[in-house]
Amino acid sequence: MSWHIASRQLRGLITLGTLLALIWAAGLFLFASSLPRQEPDDTITTDGIVVLTGGSERLSVAFDLLRAGKGRKLFISGVYRGVEVRELLALSSKSGDLECCVQLGYDADDTEGNAVETARWVAEQGLTSLRLVTANYHMPRSLVEFRRALPGITLVPHPVMPQKVRLDGWWSWPGTAELIIGEYNKYLLAVARAALTGPRPAAS
Fold first, then answer.
1. Which residue of 17, 102, 103, 173 is surrounded by the most CB atoms within 10 Å?
2. Is residue 124 helix, strand or coil?
3. CATH number of 44-197
4. d(Cα 119, Cα 203) in Å, to the nearest integer?
5. What are phi and psi of 132, to 5 degrees?
6. Residue extents of the structural domains in the chain
7. Mind listing the pLDDT tens digit for each residue in 146-175?
8. Cβ-count burial 69-95 (b if 16+ within 10 Å, e if not)
9. Tens-digit pLDDT profile for residues 95-113
């Protein structure tokens, strides 16, 4: 009798595991299909612009947005003290003296940290709207974290399309597949954390 009970329990666990795996896989493909394929073409102007470090493409787009008047100030969050950022700041100062409108944040080392660091800057600057610049695959998780850290602030997503990330047929590109799967899992964790903890004050 005990063997039959154990067998039924095992079958139940296998069935549950299979069901969860199917739900996870379906969510993964929905996540990947929802990622933006092209940069937005809008006329929205925000008080500020924040760009999350992680590639020169993001930084170049952010500087272009600042030059175009899409925001009055630019915050670069998660800066590592590397040549890339310093060089771009030097280039910006030579083409319109944008350095006066740019501030760097050095405290963040992950997306949650980006949101908290940016929330402090937004509060200091008295901003009410913010354009968020990051890679397209990173945007869903970033919005979860930023909405948690910046309740009441209008967020305008501005996804950047990294050339090395191939979203069409992504499952057939090992590098892109690994990136998207990893980002999807982090997104699920961010959603769960946000649901369990609610908004996070900027000062925390």
1. 102
2. helix
3. 3.40.50
4. 8
5. -100, 120
6. 44-197
7. 999 999 999 999 999 998 999 999 999 999
8. ebbebbbbbbbeeeeebeebbeebeee
9. 556 767 888 888 888 999 9
